[in-house]
Amino acid sequence: MEQNLVSLMVSQRLHFDIYGYVLLKNVLVPDEVERMKSALHRANEDPNLDVDSRVYIRRNSDHYVLLGNLVEYDSSLLEYAVHPKLVPLVEEVVGGKIRLEETEAIINSRDPDADLRELEKHRYNPVAFHRGTKHGWGTYIEQNKFHCVFVKTLAYLTDVGPDDGGTAFIPGSHRLTWDRSEMIEAAMSDESLVCQVEAEAGDVLLFPESLIHSTTAIKSDKERTILIAGYTPTMFQPWPGNEVDPEFVKTLPDEMRALISGSESWSWQRKY
Ligand SMILES: O=C(O)CCC(=O)C(=O)O
């Protein structure tokens, strides 16, 4: 696919600039979704994962597992990180060439200890609102458009309805200089200020890390699997634990190497 032919539609760019996210429909085909999901489930069940691979894993009892540093583990996970339908869109909102900063995945289901009646009292149940960068130093305006130096693509590998733990946001928070906790408190006092994604397997959410966002508690019996890739301009560092083995980088085709390793560093090719 010609990468420079892939771009956000003007309506998608406006949605991204106003609300701080855009849901891209049907990006991954069913075969890609299945391969990525089965690789993540294999990693989750692998008793030798930390010995045999560079993947990190954090478990919160049986209902939540976070896996990270995934590109070396399976070709489908590498393919996600360099996806030709996504990389140009990230470059558009970063404003230049990018490097991979992290890959993570979450497999989660309802917390067996959660009080369902308590969850039902609220429209949204964010577990921990946070952001990875801040408007003012992690963002900039160029040619009147919003840009961010830390951007994520989050792929839904399972369908996510209203009770199935879609990502929650405080729309518009990506370009506010408010104190983070003040914004979260204000949004939680009026749930119309929060939104929660509903998506189908294969849809991908594009958002800047200056947007306040959270995993949400699952109320249904469905398990959710998501796959995330984070990107920055080329001179930034990977998130700790997401360093890719230089020997693995050597095995990659030329066109993938800089994206995975950040080798372009301060020779940042800006779009402007
Ligand atoms: O679980 C989710 O939907 C959100 C993941 C998240 O918070 C992140 O990637 O920083």
Task: Please name the defining characteristics of this protein.
single chain; 272 residues; alpha+beta; Jelly Rolls; seven-stranded antiparallel sheet; three-stranded antiparallel sheet; 9 helices; globular; binds 2-oxoglutaric acid
Straight-line distance between termini: 23 Å
Radius of gyration: 18 Å
Helix fraction, binned, reads 25-40%
The assigned structural class equals alpha+beta
Output the CATH topology of the domain at 3-108 and 142-160 and 197-210 and 220-261: Jelly Rolls
CATH architecture of the domain at 3-108 and 142-160 and 197-210 and 220-261: Sandwich
Using the coordinates above, name the CATH class of the domain at 3-108 and 142-160 and 197-210 and 220-261.
Mainly Beta
Summarize the main sheet.
Answer: 7 strands, antiparallel
- Ions and ligands: 2-oxoglutaric acid
Query: Strands of the largest sheet, in order across it?
Result: 1-10-7-12-4-3-2
Number of strands: 12
Roughly what is the average pLDDT, rounded to an integer?
96
Give the CATH H-level superfamily of the domain at 3-108 and 142-160 and 197-210 and 220-261.
q2cbj1_9rhob like domain
Total number of helices: 9
SSE order: HEHHEEHHEHEEEEHEEEEHH
